[in-house]
Recover the amino acids of this structure.
């Protein structure tokens, strides 16, 4: 693991090789924020944290390209390229060939670079995790280096400890929830959940035009915030008795020779 620091925060980032036993075919292996802490202790959680860990549930602030695996158009099979991970078997849920990252380590930032060429696809990914004061920034750039369009679906999965009160997080209004869930939206704009043990994944309609800002209640800090530079195609919320998470989805098609960039900021 790598640790980057500011005067206020310590950010632990997984190493794509040394920490491979903590990784699978779901979360991007370069730039995986495993924990953020200050002098009072850890600030993030996870579905099984602190008792144990598994690659699917994750913890901290993992993020993923896995919802849009790139399949060989000429030889379709269970094998696919998952950006930021490598060639995977999506049926067996295993990684067949990990991608190689070039890593640059500095006291307040760590940078990752990799390229993929498989099944007619070619792309490069550049990622950076940095910390300044009480703000952690994860930035990503994806370039299409192939002769066909590149579909990209990416989402962050920040895991927060459950707040002390009923209010969880505030999304940009207007906010609407489907009926029959354990979630509700209060007049103050904050979501509430009456039963985290139901572990429901719920689509939330909100103003995702972007940049998207989410305010999150935190049991020790009161309120923390997350800001995403992109318009969210849709937003899911999920929680269990240990943690709560929101997932804004970036969905784009990148043209030949083009690139896209975005950032996610986490304010503690």
């Amino acid at each position: 693991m790598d640790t980057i620091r500011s005067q206020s925060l310590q950010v632990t980032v997984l190493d794509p090789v040394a920490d491979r036993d903590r990784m699978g075919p779901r979360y991007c292996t370069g730039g995986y924020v495993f924990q953020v802490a200050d002098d009072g202790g850890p600030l993030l959680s996870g579905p099984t944290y602190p008792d144990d860990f598994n690659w699917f549930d994750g913890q901290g602030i993992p993020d993923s390209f896995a919802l849009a695996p790139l399949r060989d158009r000429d030889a379709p099979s269970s094998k696919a390229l998952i950006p930021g991970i490598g060639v995977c078997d999506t049926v067996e849920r295993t990684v067949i060939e990990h991608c190689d990252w070039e890593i640059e380590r500095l006291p307040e930032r760590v940078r990752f670079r990799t390229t993929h060429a498989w099944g007619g696809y070619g792309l490069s990914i550049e990622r950076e995790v940095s910390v300044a004061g009480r703000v952690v920034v994860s930035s990503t750039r994806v370039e299409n280096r192939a002769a066909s369009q590149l579909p990209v679906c990416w989402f962050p999965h920040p895991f927060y400890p459950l707040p002390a009160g009923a209010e969880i997080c505030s999304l940009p209004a207007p906010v609407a929830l489907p009926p029959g869930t354990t979630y509700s939206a209060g007049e103050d704009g904050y979501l509430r959940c009456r039963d985290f043990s139901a572990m429901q994944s719920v689509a939330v309609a909100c103003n995702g035009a972007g940049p998207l800002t989410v305010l999150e209640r935190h049991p020790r800090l009161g309120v923390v915030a997350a800001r995403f530079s992109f318009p969210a195609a849709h937003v899911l919320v999920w929680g269990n008795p240990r943690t709560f998470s929101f997932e804004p989805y970036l969905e784009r098609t990148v043209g030949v020779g083009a690139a896209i960039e975005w950032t996610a900021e986490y304010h503690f």
Observations:
- The two ends are 21 Å apart (CA to CA).
- Residues 159-250 form one domain.
